[in-house]
Write a structure and sequence with these properties.
The chain contains 11 helices and 8 strands. By secondary structure, the chain is of the alpha/beta class. Strands 3-4-2-5-1-6-7-8 form an 8-stranded mixed beta sheet, with helices on both faces. Helix 7 packs parallel to helix 9. The longest helix is centred in the middle third of the chain and has 29 residues. The chain is elongated, with a radius of gyration of 22 Å. The N and C termini lie close together (7 Å). 35% of the residues are buried.
Length: 308
């Protein structure tokens, strides 16, 4: 079984890497191939600069839409998710607090929602619900992520949020006092439920049976160095990298002097990739003679990735 085929045994795949290296192309080709093999696949873009619609050649939006048999797609809009998240929090607050403090609670929520990290938290919440399998229509979820730094922040989010929820829980217990049974307190129950969902998300994220990360790069200096840093940071976070995809590898048959010079430089970098990342499966996608657009082109790329 090839390294690429093994990826399709997972429940969740994340495609990450430096901006402009072909994450969307690789993710979409993988999702298409998996759907052709009979899996029910959801392709999810979390990149604010969504390219999924352009690659697939048909519109994708903030709600799940079927693109082809067995293949659906979704472009998560962080702003919309933030609005939805805030509305849900306000509904929960309404059930927990009396009218006397509801207005002030809502004001504090609106203030928090205006902070820079609010959209990331809402995005994380939507990703978490998908990874936990709350929508059971799909066998495989393929995430086309934002550039590496943003993705790494999302991966660290469970740990940060767990610490925050634990602090809130301690504060609430102190408020209740020793005579109160916190099992009957709706706020403590809400915090406990949130903590349990975070733990489930992290467990699935770091499980090599469930999830794999695929880092995409091209044979150039900056993407190689960013990939090396990402591998180190993912390893520190306990996240397994399933494969590297080296995109846009030049054909070796050209006799054009310029292309021959580029090929010579590329061979140096390809050798470096093989040497530095020898412990990780490496897949290659050739440079195509035309832009990647539409299902037919994606099938060509999938054939390169998933050849036996």
């Amino acid at each position: 079984m090839s390294d690429a085929v093994r990826l399709l045994d997972k429940k969740v795949l994340f495609f990450g890497g430096k901006g402009g290296v072909g994450k969307t192309t690789s993710a979409a080709a993988t999702a298409l191939h998996a759907s052709r093999s009979g899996k029910r696949v959801l392709l999810v873009s979390t990149d604010p600069a969504h390219n999924t619609s352009d690659i697939l050649g048909r519109p994708v939006g903030p709600e799940i839409v079927e693109m082809l048999p067995n293949l659906s797609a979704l472009e998560i809009d962080a702003g919309q998710e933030s609005g939805r998240y805030v509305a849900e929090v306000k509904e929960r607050i309404k059930a927990l607090f009396g009218h006397a403090i509801l207005k002030e609670a809502n004001r504090q929520i609106d203030l928090a929602a205006s902070m820079p990290a609010a959209e990331e938290v809402a995005l994380f919440d939507r990703i978490g619900s998908l990874i936990r399998g709350e929508d059971d229509r799909f066998d495989l979820i393929v995430f086309d992520t934002a550039p590496t730094g943003h993705t790494l922040r999302l991966i660290k989010m469970p740990e940060l949020m767990e610490a925050w929820i634990r602090a809130l829980s301690r504060s609430r217990r102190a408020m209740l006092g020793v005579d109160q049974d916190d099992k009957n307190d709706p706020i403590m129950n809400s915090l406990s439920d949130r903590l349990e969902r975070l733990r489930e998300f992290r467990a699935r994220l770091i499980s090599p049976r469930v999830t794999a990360f695929v880092l995409v790069l091209i044979a150039e200096r900056l993407p190689i160095e960013e990939t090396a840093r990402a591998l180190e940071q993912l390893d520190e976070a306990g996240v397994r990298v399933g494969a590297l995809v080296v995109n846009r590898v030049l054909p070796s048959s050209s006799v054009d002097p310029f292309l021959m010079a580029r090929q010579a430089q590329e061979r140096v970098y390809l050798d470096e990739i093989d040497r530095r990342f020898a412990a990780v499966a490496r897949l290659r996608i050739p440079q195509l003679p035309r832009d990647v657009h539409g299902i037919e082109t994606l099938e060509t790329i999938a054939a390169s990735l998933f050849r036996a």
